[in-house]
Design a protein that fits this description.
Layout: E1 5-11, E2 22-27, H1 48-57, H2 64-77
Antiparallel strand pairs: 1-2
């Protein structure tokens, strides 16, 4: 089954993104993810409240690029 994907935003290259240009998309589904082990160290599903608390308490646990993507996603999605 193909999951519909929705464009969220483009993020310009910056120090936070490792000087990479990023296109941010969102999708939802219940199928297992097939992750590239060379690109993604760890993945999991967490409630947004858990992510918010985790970022506040231990921002160093997250890659700067993730933090920037999460910030942009929150602004664009009104969360």
């Amino acid at each position: 089954m193909k999951t519909p994907v929705r464009f969220v935003a483009r993020i310009p290259a910056s120090e936070q993104t490792g000087f990479e240009f990023i296109a941010l998309y969102t999708a939802s589904g219940d199928e297992p993810l097939n992750l590239d082990q060379f690109e993604i160290e760890t993945a999991g599903y967490f409630p947004l409240e858990t992510i918010e608390r985790w970022i506040q308490r231990r921002p160093g646990d997250f890659a700067p690029g993730f933090l920037e993507c999460y910030r942009v996603w929150k602004v664009e999605s009104g969360k």
